[in-house]
Design a protein that fits this description.
single chain; alpha+beta; Uridine Diphospho-n-acetylenolpyruvylglucosamine Reductase, domain 1; 7 helices; globular
Length: 301
């Protein structure tokens, strides 16, 4: 287990901002993660889980809680049947793949495509890990994790491994019970069907081109900054307030897509936070719609 002190969090977040974590821990395997969670709960020590840091804003002062990274050391994909390596469908033609929580969602979707399995095409471009994607029921282009997730393995507060059917997570738009139950996602199993490989790859390429054309994927950001308000699109509301390109310090409303706040170079977490707050205020005043941030906040703002 790797333990780092005063680890700069701007190295671990897609915004590339954030002060230090007093203690930053990287478990080497699932067992170490289980024992660590058990210990921290027994000692009543606060902790936060980070994967790719793609939906996160850490304050410039950093975080006092222990930060646990679930990343490359907990990365792996296998077929559930057939000894983990060979494809094997059930009587209904369902193939199951299991991905560890630190595996990138994109890698998991690509694994499915490589084996002609359909259902995850739209998820290919989401930059987070499987664990983070399950926790927030991530989605894009009309597909969410709940559409393909069959079950999940979680670590409970007492350090025990527990398997839950997807239904018990109460998945809805950008929500699951994982945080409030104190669960830590260890792995997820996806149920997929066979498709035409060329069609799957073509669909994935189309989604990727759409992202490239319409989203500022070349800039540092946390992806979509706000949840989609019912009956509206956040980016359109922001644009209608005349905020395209609006900036504060190094933080800016993307010129390419107003639903993204970006670090345009040299931004501090305080700049990003101020800009998000100002956008929310302006949209509420001018459009009468309250925007809810999708980005999670760590530390004091």
């Amino acid at each position: 287990m790797k333990v780092l002190k005063n680890e700069p969090m701007d190295k671990h977040t897609s915004f590339r901002v954030g002060g230090p974590a007093k203690v930053y821990v990287v478990p080497e395997d699932e067992y170490e993660l289980m024992k660590l969670i058990e210990f921290l709960h027994s000692e009543k020590l606060l902790y936060n889980i980070i994967g790719n840091g793609t939906n996160l804003l850490v304050s410039d002062e950093g975080v006092d809680s222990i930060v646990i990274e679930i990343g490359k050391s907990l990365d792996g994909i296998e077929f559930v049947a057939g000894g983990g390596k060979e494809e094997c469908a059930d009587a209904d033609g369902i193939y199951r793949i299991r991905a560890l929580a630190g595996t990138s969602l994109g890698k998991t979707a690509q694994f499915a495509a490589n084996h002609s399995l359909t259902g995850m095409e739209a998820l290919r471009g989401i930059p987070g890990t499987v664990g983070g994607a399950v926790t927030m029921n991530a989605g894009a282009y009309g597909t969410e994790m709940c559409d393909v997730l069959e079950s999940v393995e979680v670590i409970t507060k007492d350090g025990k491994l527990k398997e839950l059917p997807a239904g018990e997570l109460k998945l809805s738009y950008r929500y699951s019970v994982v945080p409030e139950e104190g669960y830590v996602v260890a792995a997820a199993t996806f149920a997929l069907k066979k498709g035409d490989k060329k069609a799957i790859e073509a669909e994935m390429a189309d989604y990727q081109q759409r992202r490239k054309d319409k989203q500022p994927i070349e800039k540092f950001s946390a992806g979509s900054t706000f949840k989609r308000p019912e009956g509206h699109f956040a980016g359109k509301l922001i644009e209608d307030c005349g905020l395209r390109g609006f900036r504060h310090g190094g933080a800016q409303v993307s010129e390419k897509h107003c639903g993204f706040v970006i670090n345009d170079g040299g931004a501090r977490a305080a700049d990003v936070y101020w800009l998000i707050a100002e956008i929310r205020k302006r949209v509420l005043m001018e459009q009468g719609v309250e925007l809810t941030p999708e980005v999670k906040l760590w530390g004091s703002f």
